[in-house]
Automatic annotation (TrEMBL):
Signal peptide: none annotated. GO terms for biological process: SRP-dependent cotranslational protein targeting to membrane. Keywords: Cell membrane, Cytoplasm, GTP-binding, Hydrolase, Membrane, Nucleotide-binding, Receptor. One of its GO terms (molecular function) is signal recognition particle binding. Part of the signal recognition particle protein translocation system, which is composed of SRP and FtsY. SRP is a ribonucleoprotein composed of Ffh and a 4.5S RNA molecule. Involved in targeting and insertion of nascent membrane proteins into the cytoplasmic membrane. Acts as a receptor for the complex formed by the signal recognition particle (SRP) and the ribosome-nascent chain (RNC). Interaction with SRP-RNC leads to the transfer of the RNC complex to the Sec translocase for insertion into the membrane, the hydrolysis of GTP by both Ffh and FtsY, and the dissociation of the SRP-FtsY complex into the individual components. This is Signal recognition particle receptor FtsY. It comes from the Bacteria. InterPro entries: AAA+_ATPase, P-loop_NTPase, Signal_recog_particl_SRP54_hlx, SR_rcpt_FtsY, SRP/SRP_N, SRP54_GTPase_dom, SRP54_N_sf. It catalyses: GTP + H2O = GDP + phosphate + H(+). One of its GO terms (cellular component) is plasma membrane. The gene is ftsY.
């Protein structure tokens, strides 16, 4: 009589093997490379239109091949839980478990920004820039308070520009242009002179303003150089984030094989940005650069950024090594490197000029990244660069940094910089 309440069971047929596992992607790269490259992260979002991202449908799923962070290292003995190390041998990879949850497409609402949000971001950046250059801005801006427009004002402005490390040549050019504008427009108000100085300075710095062009070649190979402590590795991490925001797929190469923890630092930046890193502990930096170019091409990357060890221009053997790295990159791609950037400390003052001359002579610079401008009293250095002081070529400034946060590295805009510098 209890058979009526007995639950009927239906035998479960096993699913075909092809439906229970997901084949591992082909991650093989050139057999001649000595470094290991991680599997690709999820596809980078397209540059235009709505962006979509993959999200895990069930939160309790085990970490599979698709969800691991794409950090690469050839020989880290004890990888931490925060930076999972991924092998490149597809044959050794575990298959996705049969109970792995399906992935669904979820619209990334953060991709769309209103005009108000963009305006707020620009206002926030200008405030940071003005705050970073406050010391220089105060020394210049205070000269226009309650004064008459006469020769004494011009002399004080000239002194303030030289004290801000604008240099004699740039100061003479700026003051000559300012005097001509004041005379032409018959300016008699101090505030109007301040605005005229902003305009003159913006015109003077315009030669350094150039957009960082991405997409004209693939992959775009970028070689990063600089002296010790200028902030190369940190700038690479921030730059990778900025380029990802444009929809570019980025690959990093840890070419600084000499400084302690340099590789780990770049791997950590890769972890933050979910970017793959080509690394080789204690290896030849030229070999790392060579492998990264091949890996970037094989993996369809948009940009390959190669870090290099810091060196002083007076260390001739290290400058020769930098030349070698450039030559080896050209062997991997005859058109590369497409960009050779020099990272300079904004607090270095006139010493920046000698750095530009030395590195430009060695590897042929295409652009600058100026860091640590927050709190500097030497904001006029870029005016000296624009003037070609001391035989320095006016190399374009692609990016400037005014803080430690990820978003504190922004493109250089001459008018914004001039407005913040004058105060």
């Amino acid at each position: 009589m209890f058979r009526f309440f007995k639950k009927k069971t239906t035998p479960v047929e096993p699913l075909p093997e092809a439906q229970t596992t997901t084949p591992a992607p082909d991650l093989s790269i050139s057999q001649n490379t000595s470094t290991e490259v991680s599997p690709d992260a999820a596809q980078s979002p397209p540059v235009q239109g709505r962006r979509f991202m993959l999200s895990q449908a069930l939160s309790g799923a085990p970490l599979g091949r698709q969800t691991g962070l794409p950090i690469v290292s050839a020989d880290i003995a004890q990888p931490s839980a925060a930076v999972p190390i991924v092998s490149v041998d597809a044959a050794q990879q575990p298959e996705a478990p049969a109970h792995a949850p399906a992935l669904e497409l979820v619209e990334d609402q953060s991709a769309e920004q209103t005009e108000e949000q963009i305006a707020e971001q620009k206002t926030s950046w200008l405030a940071k820039l003005k705050g970073g250059l406050a010391k220089t801005g105060q020394s210049l801006g205070s000269l226009f308070v309650g004064v008459r427009v006469d020769e004494d004002l011009f002399e004080e402005l000239e002194t303030a520009l030289i004290m801000a490390d604008a240099g004699v040549e740039a100061t003479e050019q700026l003051m000559s242009a300012l005097r001509a504008r004041v005379k032409r427009d018959r300016i008699e108000d101090a505030d109007a002179v301040r605005q005229a100085l902003k305009d003159v300075l913006a015109d003077h710095l315009k030669i350094l303003e150039k957009p960082f062009d991405v997409g004209h070649v693939k992959p775009l190979v970028v070689m990063i150089t600089g002296v010790n402590g200028a902030g190369k590795t940190t700038s690479i991490g921030k730059l990778a984030n900025a380029l990802q925001q444009r929809g570019a797929k980025v690959l990093l190469a840890a070419g600084d094989t000499f400084r302690a923890a340099a590789r780990e630092q770049l791997v950590e930046w890769g972890n933050r940005n979910n970017v793959s890193v080509v690394a080789q502990d204690g290896g030849d930096p030229a070999a790392v650069a060579f492998d990264s170019v091949h890996a970037g091409r094989a993996r369809g990357m948009d940009i390959v950024m190669i870090d290099t060890a810091g060196r002083l221009p007076t260390q001739l053997h290290l400058m020769d090594e930098l030349k070698k790295i450039r030559r080896v990159i050209a062997k991997a791609d005859p058109t590369a490197p497409h960009e050779v950037l020099l990272v300079v400390d904004g607090n270095s003052g006139q010493n920046v000029l000698s750095q530009i001359r030395s590195f430009d002579a060695a590897v042929g610079l295409t652009g600058l990244i100026v860091t640590k401008l927050d709190g500097t009293a030497k904001g006029g250095t870029l005016a000296a660069v624009a003037a070609g002081s001391q035989g320095t070529r006016p190399v374009p400034v692609y990016w400037i940094g005014v803080g430690e946060k990820m978003e504190d590295l922004q493109p250089f805009v001459a008018a914004d910089f001039a407005a913040a510098l004058v105060g």
